[in-house]
Structures are given as structure tokens and as C-alpha cells.
Write a structure and sequence with these properties.
The protein has helices at residues 7-10, 95-115, 123-127, 130-133, 137-153, 164-172, 175-181, 183-204, and strands at residues 15-18, 23-30, 40-49, 53-62, 73-78, 84-89, 157-158. By secondary structure, the protein is α+β, with helices and mostly antiparallel strands. It has a 7-stranded antiparallel sheet with strand order 1-2-3-4-5-6-7, with helices on one face. Helix 6 (164-172) runs antiparallel to helix 8 (183-204). The model is unreliable at 196-205 (pLDDT under 50).
Length: 205
């Protein structure tokens, strides 16, 4: 049995509101004593303004009591950037691998917050315990590898509205998602959906 509770160690604060820059960050964690028996969730939500309001949600989690997504997965919600919600299944052999992936997720969140430094210098240091998070680069690489394995085995699951091909195109043009998922992984996703679309066109003819 292992305790999965990371926000108390790696985050200085779980809610960040800055009126001057109009940035809001929310971190929500549902801890677990045993991920084989209980739900676990770590979600990070960001709000900021550029030419328009940008609202993004990132999560690594599983829902043991639900029929859908009752396995470890990444979830992204990028509705203000024409991508919407999508999920990526993750597979782990042990709880230690799951823990390593969660730590990798936290490392990747550091890169997300660093992007907001252009609007609010010092925001990363305000929210994260940087002295610890900076040491999680290997865990970040591990999660990137798990993402690669998942893309090879499972398709990304998009919420079933809108044109999926357009969403993949928008994903492929989003620097933050490219950085989070890995450039090679996003290219593979775009290529796989391109092939699927071509086959569909052939079948229709």
C-alpha cells in the first residue's frame, strides 16, 4: 500500500489569483492510499488572457467507480483553443510506475507555468516548490515514453462533437501541448488521424 498525495510536497499553494495579470491557477488533488482500490486525481486548471480568455485543464487520474475512464489516463480540456476535451490512456505495471508518471506530470506542469512567466514573472516559483520539481526531469521523460507507448497502442479519445480531424490539426499547432506530449508523439497522432481520414474518404467513394 502506498500513499499517493503529492500536492502537499510539490506545490506552495493550490489556488493562485492575481488581479493585476488576470491569471488564476487551481490545483486539485484527490489523494489515494491504494490506487488499486481508490480513485486518484491530480488536476491543474489555468486561466489567463491574451487576445482572448484562455482556459486550460490538465489532469492525470483514474476513476475506479466509473465504467468510463476507470484506468489511469491523461485528460486535457482546451475548449478556448478549438481542441476541446481529449483523453490518453496510460498503462502501468506497478504502483511505482504510476507514481513516477504523476511526478512526471508535475514536472511538465512546471513548463506550463513557465509559459505564464511572460505575463507574471515569478509565478512558477510562487506556485511550485521549484527546488524539488526541477529534480523530476527523469520522471518527465518517463511520462513522455508512456505517452508514446499509449499512442502506439491506443488512439486519443476526443469528446464526440465537432470535427476530430480539425481538433488534431489544432493540437498539432499548439506549442504547449507539443511540449507536454512530446513533439514526436504529436506528429504520430496527426499522422494516424490523417491516415484514418484518407481511408474513410476511400471507403466513401
Amino acid at each position: 500500500m502506498k500513499e499517493f498525495h503529492f500536492s502537499k510536497k510539490y506545490f506552495n499553494k493550490l489556488i493562485y489569483d492575481d488581479i493585476e495579470s488576470n491569471i488564476r491557477i487551481i490545483i486539485k488533488e484527490i489523494p489515494s492510499l491504494d490506487v488499486y482500490e481508490e480513485d486518484y486525481s491530480l488536476r491543474v486548471e489555468t486561466h489567463h488572457e491574451e487576445r482572448k480568455l484562455i482556459h486550460r485543464k490538465y489532469a492525470i487520474e483514474h476513476h475506479s467507480r466509473q465504467d468510463k475512464h476507470n484506468y489511469p489516463h491523461l485528460q486535457f480540456k482546451f475548449h478556448t483553443e478549438e481542441i476541446g476535451t481529449f483523453w490518453l490512456r496510460l498503462e502501468f505495471e506497478t504502483q511505482d510506475e504510476y507514481k513516477k508518471a504523476i511526478l512526471g506530470f508535475i514536472y511538465k506542469i512546471k513548463n506550463i507555468l513557465e509559459d505564464l512567466e511572460r505575463f507574471k514573472p515569478g509565478i512558477c516559483d510562487d506556485i511550485l516548490v521549484l527546488t524539488l520539481v526541477k529534480n523530476l526531469s527523469k520522471e518527465g521523460e518517463f511520462l513522455t515514453q508512456k505517452i508514446s507507448e499509449s499512442i502506439a497502442k491506443h488512439e486519443l479519445e476526443f469528446q464526440n462533437y465537432g470535427n476530430t480531424r480539425d481538433k488534431v490539426k489544432s493540437l498539432h499547432n499548439n506549442p504547449l501541448l507539443i511540449n507536454f506530449l512530446g513533439e514526436d508523439n504529436v506528429t504520430k497522432v496527426a499522422a494516424s488521424y490523417g491516415k484514418a481520414y484518407s481511408k474513410k474518404k476511400i471507403i466513401i467513394k
